[in-house]
């Protein structure tokens, strides 16, 4: 049988709720506290004895820990009783230590006190950690907000006669409250509603007497009536004037119109009620409108290009401790003179023919990202780590530039001082035909071949494109000399075209990306939106053609990215006291090139010259 003499009850903590820091309090984490009494204090303040308001009995339940509060007869305890009854205080939280967790799951803890707090910290729960981690198991001290309001507040007949008298006196005082007194009891949300309704609650304003014309202009205060303070009140015509201002082309909003009218007509709001405030001759009405709330507090969310394939490229390329790369190859295919010969007795043996040596070298180039942060901004921005935020952006930009240079090339004109030279980081797309196989996508030929067998009655354009891509990939693999199973890097649109290929019954030919990868004979398919609409000029003069990129097939282990010690990615920082700036330099010195012949395949389509990038192959 539960004790019925408690003053209030409510959840002190709830189980299986993901807290704002990602942790979850598990069932029976505070089981050993069941039935215990712990101090009941105000807002976790342990520095003075008068902050202790009473005690709380804990009850472990399946959903969490429930608490029954007993308030002392001290002045602080009785004040808390009145505030609970009035609804001023609606929430509980606990202070617990010896927290032990597995991963993000809190398995055990010891509740030391329960606190009355003004409001729940957030929906669900929040843990404010006090100490740090120790060893494999986490042992911490924390303040845990359940986000649950008190379920009931019970004021019993045992309450003292003095308490009843206090309630009667409070009721009598309420009868005598002025309009301002009542308004001051409203919370901010309720005040905002009142502000919005001011224009609808305006009274008629009397014309000033002739004797008063030389007096200083009277400020209107809508929260005092004229009998109490002797002030004039606003007229209904004021409302119409404000609305007309808002409708005018020069103003355009109710907020601007209200501010303009307040400035022109001396409209004043009680500063204690957080309404109009005066700065010189200007009145601020911003408090009439709700403040903006950040949906995701902290650092601003970045809008970036597709970053998935960039991380794949940077992780899969072969990292070499040598920055000056040299490759040597001898092509002995189809050279009849190199064939072994049969010997006939008495005949002279002939010499084996000569062969050509193909060699190329690649030197390194410095690639960098430089930025400067004003120290005023570093100090003033407190919502997040501004320095780390800018560093992460610089690192992202550097990786994207390197990955793009490896796959596509720099894209800047040859005259640009900032160009990453294709002689230092050789792009796979435009590399020599000895290293990159350039396969042409012929949709017209594929359509003629397929539709010639009456496929037009069964399949659509997407099917033709998908089959043309597969043919181009598989036929190119016949001369492919790269190691292992290559991956495909493709434009998102071309991937979608192939995945959306259907038969006459509307069923997709390839049900998943994995099934399509199997048909293309590649390991994985990665989309790269930076490939979209990229073109290059192939050849020169009248025979020049504009080629549009669709996909690159390569095992990036065959591409070496070389950097000697000290040339790897390095971060330099320096403070400029003359300009009060924190300067940052993210730099690497490296070279890059395919190191195996015929180790990459590029799928291109001939298009009209419009939109060509100017790259020449």
Describe this structure as you would to a colleague.
The protein is of the alpha+beta class and 617 residues long. Among the domains are: 8-170, no CATH class; 177-288, no CATH class; 423-561 and 596-607, no CATH class. The strands form six sheets. Strands 1, 2, 3, 4, 5, 6, 7, 8, 9 and 10 form a ten-stranded mixed sheet that branches. Strands 19, 20, 21, 22, 23 and 27 form a six-stranded mixed sheet that branches. α6 (236-247) packs across α7 and α12 (461-476) crosses α13. The chain is elongated. 27% of the residues are buried.
Question: Which helices and strands occur, and which strands form pairs?
Answer:
Elements: E1 8-14, E2 24-25, E3 37-42, E4 52-60, E5 64-71, H1 75-86, E6 91-102, E7 105-117, E8 126-129, E9 138-149, E10 152-153, H2 161-175, H3 179-184, H4 188-196, E11 220-221, H5 226-229, H6 236-247, H7 254-265, E12 267-268, E13 277-279, E14 282-284, H8 308-316, E15 318-320, E16 325-330, E17 357-362, E18 365-374, H9 375-380, H10 386-407, E19 436-440, H11 443-451, H12 461-476, E20 487-490, H13 492-499, H14 513-520, E21 525-527, E22 535-538, E23 545-554, E24 559-562, E25 570-576, E26 581-594, E27 600-607
Helix pairs in contact: 6-7, 8-10, 11-12, 12-13
């Amino acid at each position: 049988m539960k004790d019925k003499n408690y003053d209030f009850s409510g959840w002190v903590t709830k189980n299986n709720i993901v807290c704002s820091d990602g942790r979850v309090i598990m069932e029976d984490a505070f089981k050993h506290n069941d039935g215990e009494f712990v101090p009941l204090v105000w807002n976790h303040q342990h520095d003075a004895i008068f902050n202790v308001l009473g005690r709380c009995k804990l009850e472990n339940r399946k959903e969490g820990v429930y608490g029954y509060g007993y308030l002392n007869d001290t002045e602080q305890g009785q004040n808390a009783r009145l505030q609970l009854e009035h609804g001023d205080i609606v929430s509980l939280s606990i202070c617990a230590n010896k927290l032990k967790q597995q991963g993000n799951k809190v398995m055990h803890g010891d509740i030391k006190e329960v606190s009355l707090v003004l409001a729940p910290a957030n929906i669900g729960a929040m843990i404010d950690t006090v100490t740090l981690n120790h060893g494999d198991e986490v042992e911490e001290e924390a303040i845990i907000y359940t986000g649950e309001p008190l379920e009931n507040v019970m004021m019993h007949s045992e309450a003292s006669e003095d308490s009843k008298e206090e309630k009667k006196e409070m009721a009598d005082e309420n009868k005598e409250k002025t309009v301002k007194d009542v308004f001051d009891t409203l919370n901010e949300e309720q005040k905002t509603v009142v502000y919005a309704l001011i224009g609808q609650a305006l009274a008629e304003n009397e014309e000033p007497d002739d004797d008063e014309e030389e007096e200083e202009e009277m400020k209107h205060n809508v929260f005092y009536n004229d009998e109490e303070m002797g002030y004039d009140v606003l007229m209904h015509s004021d409302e119409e004037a404000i609305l007309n201002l808002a409708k005018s082309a020069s103003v355009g909003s109710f907020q601007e119109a209200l501010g303009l009218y307040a400035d022109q007509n001396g409209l004043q709001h009680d500063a204690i009620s957080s309404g109009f405030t005066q700065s010189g001759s200007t009145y601020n009405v911003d408090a009439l409108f709700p403040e903006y709330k950040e949906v995701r507090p902290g650092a601003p969310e970045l809008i970036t290009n597709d970053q998935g394939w960039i991380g794949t490229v940077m992780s899969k390329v072969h990292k070499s401790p040598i920055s000056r790369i040299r490759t040597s190859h001898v092509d002995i295919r189809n050279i009849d003179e190199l064939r072994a010969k049969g010997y006939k007795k008495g005949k002279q043996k002939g010499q084996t023919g000569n062969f050509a040596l193909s060699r190329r070298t690649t030197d390194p180039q410095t690639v960098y990202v430089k930025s400067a942060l004003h120290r005023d901004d570093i100090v003033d921005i407190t919502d997040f780590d501004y320095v780390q935020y800018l560093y992460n952006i610089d690192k992202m930009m550097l990786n994207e530039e390197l990955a793009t240079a490896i796959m596509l090339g720099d894209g800047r004109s040859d005259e640009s001082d900032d160009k990453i030279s294709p002689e230092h980081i050789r792009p796979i797309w435009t590399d020599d035909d000895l290293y990159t196989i350039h396969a042409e996508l012929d949709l017209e030929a594929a359509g003629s071949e397929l539709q010639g067998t009456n496929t037009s009655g069964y399949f659509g354009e997407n099917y033709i494109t998908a089959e043309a891509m597969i043919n181009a990939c598989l036929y190119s693999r016949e001369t492919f000399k790269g190691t292992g199973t290559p991956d495909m890097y493709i434009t998102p649109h071309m991937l979608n075209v192939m995945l959306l290929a259907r038969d006459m019954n509307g069923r997709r030919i390839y049900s998943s990306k994995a099934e399509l990868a199997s048909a293309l004979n590649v390991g994985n398919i990665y989309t790269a939106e930076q490939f979209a609409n990229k073109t290059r000029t192939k050849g020169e003069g009248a025979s020049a053609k504009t080629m549009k990129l669709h996909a690159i097939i390569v095992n990036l282990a065959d591409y070496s990215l070389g950097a000697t010690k000290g040339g790897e990615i390095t971060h330099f920082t320096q403070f400029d006291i003359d300009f009060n700036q924190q300067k940052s330099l993210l730099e690497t010195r490296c070279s890059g090139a395919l190191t195996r012949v015929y180790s990459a395949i590029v799928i291109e389509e001939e298009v009209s010259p419009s939109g060509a990038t100017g790259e020449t192959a």
